[in-house]
Backbone:
């Protein structure tokens, strides 16, 4: 007995349906690929403005959300001298989140801003000025010690002068914004964090605070 051959009929409707599905999938992939970044959220930047971060990361024109990778954004930002660390995260609907950690500017020396990583940058910012020449080894020690000073006290220092004597080659004179002066050595630099506590007992008297030796206050005559 001969087997019956089954002839499959060509279905135009099924072909159209398959082509339609492929078109829809391709269209959606295309739309996703060309979709742009819609919002950029930046936090923890204190020196760089939001616009400077956006420009440095290559996002000024809000490029493709898919084709712009977290790595590329991070890599571009890390080329900026002020950027220490970066975290980049993408969210829904084209949102990009950038978390910046900057190097800290400490003081101005020879018209350059000295950062806590010892690099020098050009920056228009109000900082204490180290007014005279310092040997490189002393400068390195100053940067390392100065970085750990309480931020509130740093804001009160307006001028730094290297002022060694026969006893201590690491001695400095700080001019304070409240009108006082402070002599201090690098190995005792952390003691300046007590400045406000010490001056609160002086009843608005102005003078020179010797924290380098003896810890005493000399009132201006």
Residues:
């Amino acid at each position: 007995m001969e087997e019956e051959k089954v002839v499959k009929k060509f279905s135009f409707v099924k072909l159209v349906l398959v082509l339609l599905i492929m078109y829809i999938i391709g269209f959606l992939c295309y739309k996703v690929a060309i979709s742009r970044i819609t919002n950029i959220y930046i936090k923890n930047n204190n020196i760089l403005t939001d616009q400077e971060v956006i420009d440095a990361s290559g996002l000024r024109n809000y490029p493709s959300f898919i084709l712009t990778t977290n790595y590329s954004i991070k890599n571009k930002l890390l080329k900026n001298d002020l950027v220490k660390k970066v975290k980049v995260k993408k969210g829904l609907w084209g949102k990009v989140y950038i978390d910046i950690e900057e190097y800290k500017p400490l003081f101005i020396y020879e018209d350059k801003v000295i950062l806590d990583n010892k690099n020098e940058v050009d920056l228009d910012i109000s900082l204490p000025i180290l007014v005279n020449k310092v040997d490189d080894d002393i400068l390195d020690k100053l940067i390392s010690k100065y970085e750990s000073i309480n931020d509130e006290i740093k804001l009160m220092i307006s001028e730094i002068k290297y002022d060694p004597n026969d006893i201590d080659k690491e001695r400095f004179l700080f001019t304070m914004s409240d009108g006082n002066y402070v002599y201090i050595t690098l190995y005792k630099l952390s003691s300046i964090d007590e400045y406000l506590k010490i001056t609160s007992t002086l009843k608005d008297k102005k003078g020179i605070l010797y924290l380098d030796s003896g810890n005493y206050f000399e009132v201006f005559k």
The mean pLDDT is 90.
